[in-house]
Q: What sequence folds into this?
């Protein structure tokens, strides 16, 4: 009888930490929710739960010398400013990262705080907050749901640690990314606008989209020299409206498909695809931006075109192939 009592007491003592953990986990996210994931320096965790709570990884970009994914996070901050500028009609430019918090997943959410200034307004720096939720691993596919000045009104949306939604579009941009269009299709002025070199140089978001495709496929990239070697050769813009006049107004569209031909990249790293090697090779990338003006949510996705698939052929296709005659 004594042994049974001891066993029941031991079982009870083992169950207690799991209750404490659940309570501590809920309390952690309650504290994180108060700043929507951006300011978590004062979030408290019970001493017996340190190392057990699943939460955000805080990175101080001022005090810490080595930040994970430094180039990619810089681009995410610039994308947030890009979204803010499109909606507000401003020209803010990134100055420096202050900090960011990221979920510890293969597909992560980033809560980024940084300094930026608008040379057209005033030289003083302002503090911004940007949230980016990645949708796929090792591919360019993410949503930017927050891009704001830190002192702006906090959104009333429910806080979700990792958001898997999509900006609402008009139907034209639904589905998979398009492949590179044919020569004849590109010359359809009702469908595409061929961007002049002076225009793509003036609109730096075009080169940023190309660099995003590259960094998303190789998120551990550390050296900017790789990106500095890129040379854009051709850019085409596609929107859902075929009656835009003048045609270069498509550069101002909120939702677009951007087709970029370039060279200067020795190797393309992308899952299940093989590309020819060499910086001389002309490569192609497609990037889609969908900006929902009502909610402010923006999605960006992209891919390389022209590689050969490494996926094995279906057995049905193999069986359908003619076998050599044995006679």
A:
């Amino acid at each position: 009888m004594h042994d049974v009592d001891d066993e029941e007491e031991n079982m009870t003592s083992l169950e207690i930490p799991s209750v404490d953990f659940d309570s501590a986990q809920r309390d952690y996210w309650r504290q994180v929710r108060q700043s929507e994931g951006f300011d978590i320096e004062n979030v408290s965790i019970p001493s017996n739960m340190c190392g057990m709570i699943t939460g955000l990884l805080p990175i101080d970009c001022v005090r810490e010398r080595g930040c994970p994914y430094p180039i990619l996070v810089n681009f995410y901050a610039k994308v947030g400013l890009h979204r803010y500028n499109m909606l507000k009609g401003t020209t803010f430019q990134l100055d420096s990262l202050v900090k960011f918090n990221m979920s510890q997943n293969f597909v992560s959410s980033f809560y980024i705080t940084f300094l930026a200034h608008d040379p057209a307004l005033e030289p003083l720096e302002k503090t911004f907050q940007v949230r980016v939720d990645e949708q796929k691993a090792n591919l360019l596919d993410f949503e930017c749901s927050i891009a704001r000045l830190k002192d702006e009104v906090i959104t009333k949306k429910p806080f979700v640690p990792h958001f898997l939604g999509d900006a609402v579009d008009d139907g034209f941009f639904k589905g998979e990314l398009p492949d590179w269009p044919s020569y004849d299709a590109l010359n359809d002025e009702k469908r595409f606008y061929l961007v002049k070199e002076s225009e793509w140089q003036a609109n730096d978001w075009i080169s940023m989209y190309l660099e995003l495709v590259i960094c998303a496929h190789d998120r551990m990239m550390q050296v900017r020299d790789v990106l500095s070697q890129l040379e854009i050769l051709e850019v085409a813009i596609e929107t859902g409206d075929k009656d835009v006049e003048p045609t270069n107004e498509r550069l101002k569209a909120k939702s677009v498909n951007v087709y970029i031909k370039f060279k200067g990249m020795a190797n393309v790293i992308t899952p299940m695809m093989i590309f020819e090697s060499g910086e001389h090779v002309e490569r192609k990338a497609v990037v889609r931006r969908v900006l929902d003006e009502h909610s402010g949510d923006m999605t960006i996705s992209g891919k390389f075109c022209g590689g050969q698939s490494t996926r094995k052929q279906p057995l049905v296709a193999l069986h359908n192939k003619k076998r050599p005659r044995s006679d």
Remarks:
- Residues 203 and 212 are 15 Å apart (CA to CA).
